[in-house]
């Protein structure tokens, strides 16, 4: 069974009724809003959003195009995209990590036996920013992780100015991160992923 069919909250969310043709027959239309795991075919759209979001701020991207394809091939179930009428507007990409804290190697590795989900990047398309989409997507993503037996906690690293945003999403600061990128220093943050048995019994996971 695919991850999508096993996770009810990832099924398309239709926000308006399908239109009908003059003859009374339904036309096939794209869902107004849909959350789903990403695939390698989404990599270019992902990179375009990420590049615009990060290069203007830090001069580099958390993941380059080949790294995006790498993770979407290895662990697509640890990604989540928000699509509006078929267009990607926001996304999260993660991989598994097997140590207590992040290290430089966590930037490029996926550890299948790990129990920590390293969130590499969350980005929102510039045309829909300041609408709360980042917070909504993170909430959806954490619900998604609760249906994955491997996930016990989520880890991420962010610049200090983003700490309040992630605290509002339920993350707690662990202190300075060991990872550096150029001159940038990061704060490491953690969110426990709880309630696996409860979620499996009550959501079809």
TrEMBL record:
Keyword Nucleotide-binding in annotation: no
Xref: PROSITE patterns: GNAT
Start and end of every N-acetyltransferase domain? 33-194
The family assignment reads: Belongs to the acetyltransferase family. AANAT subfamily.
- The answer to whether the entry has keyword Transmembrane helix is no
Q: Which UniProt keywords apply?
A: Acyltransferase, Biological rhythms, Cytoplasm, Melatonin biosynthesis, Phosphoprotein, Transferase
The name this protein carries in UniProt is Serotonin N-acetyltransferase
Q: Which organism is it from?
A: Hypocryptadius cinnamomeus
The record lists the catalysed reaction(s) as: a 2-arylethylamine + acetyl-CoA = an N-acetyl-2-arylethylamine + CoA + H(+)
Instruction: Name the EC number(s).
Output: 2.3.1.87
The record, for SUPFAM superfamilies, names: Acyl-CoA N-acyltransferases (Nat)
- Identify the GO cellular component terms for this protein: cytoplasm
Entry-linked Gene3D superfamilies? 3.40.630.30
A GO MF term:
aralkylamine N-acetyltransferase activity
Grouped into one coarse class, the protein's main location is cytoplasm
